[in-house]
Amino acid sequence: MLEWLGHGGDWVTFAERYPEQVANGIDFSANINPLGPPAAVRHLWKELIPFLSRYPDPRQRRLREQLAEKHGVSPQMLLVTNGGAEAIDLLVRAIRPARVGVIEPCFSEYRQAAARAGAEVVRRMVPDSAEGFAIPYSLAEQLIREVDLLILGNPNNPTGALWERSQLLALAEQAGRRNCHLLLDEAFLDFLPQEEHLSMMAAVPRLPNVAVVRSMTKMYAVPGLRLGYLAANRRLAERCRQLQPPWSVNGIAEQIGRLLVQDEDFVRRTRQWLAQERRWLTAALENLANGEGVRLVPMEAAVNYLLLRLEFPGWTDLRLQSRLAEEGIFIRACRTFAGMGERYVRIAVRSREENRRLIQAMERMDWEETQ
């Protein structure tokens, strides 16, 4: 299994196990925008050299001001972090919940952050159905009555389940009456054209029990920088800042982040590309094996990844991962997501050339081979 660290995108492990395939390898396991990083970032490198010899601003004031203007919140409600994972970890530690609710399958970091904070994890499972892994509203309502903190991905990774803002506002109101916090992970929301109508960022100033986490990794294709941020009421944001290690965000990351926030055209072009390429890849996968043996799991959100269920006897996530890795293609085996078992794989939407290479590799497979 290539996900022995619990995440996709582990290119070092892929290189160690398949050294001959690395030169022409393609990573479908990490949901990173293949159009990025934006051209403006690539052109900026020489100008960034002076920042290597300076200490960064420990509070990222200029970047926070830009993010505050973008989302309509106070800069004091924002904290820039070393990726979205650090934002989740800081919020859980700052809230100090006794019980944390998660609805699985979901990003494993929710459960792990709760465990590191010493909280009891209250888990609910959503089984696959003809509608995919859509999360019943009643399930979240039930959890609010049982926990101090409920963590939801919107959209959810890896299932693409999506919450309407009206639903989240209602959940936040119910949670507030029970002294329960709601943590919303919007790491993939900026891929959706309806982002502005779904995000809860603008609601944070009037909802003190709601916190939102954002990542700049996926949309802008800068996972190596580790850059994310959180929005919360001022007291909670300050508590997170006090828990954050000094110099957590480096100066290069902050300067690039300031540039990324301004590049609205890149986001617009990405959304246009994704709508077209996702349709193409979906149709190509549906045609595999005459529509049998490989089933696309329906998703509520048109995010930059797809979820497949393997129906042919003898085929598991690790078997398909291994076969494709031999051809230099790295996909995400989903058995590390609670409740998914060994029949699911996740693939990122890549460029047309890369997607075509994936399809051609899968077409060459003998799906009726059971061993």
Automatic annotation (TrEMBL):
Residue stretches making up the Aminotransferase class I/classII large domain: 24-361
Q: Name one GO molecular function term.
A: pyridoxal phosphate binding
Q: Which SUPFAM superfamilies match?
A: PLP-dependent transferases
List keywords of the entry alphabetically.
Cobalamin biosynthesis, Lyase, Pyridoxal phosphate
Give the E.C. number(s).
Answer: 4.1.1.81
Indicate yes or no for the key word Lyase. Answer: yes
User: Which PROSITE patterns does the protein's record reference?
Assistant: AA_TRANSFER_CLASS_1
What InterPro entries does the record tag this protein with? Aminotransferase_I/II_large, CobD, NHTrfase_class1_PyrdxlP-BS, PyrdxlP-dep_Trfase, PyrdxlP-dep_Trfase_major, PyrdxlP-dep_Trfase_small
Q: Which GO terms describe its biological process?
A: cobalamin biosynthetic process
**Catalysed reaction, written as an equation:** O-phospho-L-threonine + H(+) = (R)-1-aminopropan-2-yl phosphate + CO2
Keyword presence, Lyase: yes
Q: In which pathway does it act?
A: Cofactor biosynthesis; adenosylcobalamin biosynthesis
EC class: lyase
Cofactor(s) needed by this chain? pyridoxal 5'-phosphate
- Spell out the CDD domains in the cross-references: AAT_like
Return the NCBIfam families for the record.
L_thr_O3P_dcar (TIGR01140)
UniProt-listed PANTHER family = HISTIDINOL-PHOSPHATE AMINOTRANSFERASE-RELATED (PTHR42885), THREONINE-PHOSPHATE DECARBOXYLASE (PTHR42885:SF1)
What job does the chain carry out? Decarboxylates L-threonine-O-3-phosphate to yield (R)-1-amino-2-propanol O-2-phosphate, the precursor for the linkage between the nucleotide loop and the corrin ring in cobalamin.
Q: What is this protein called?
A: threonine-phosphate decarboxylase
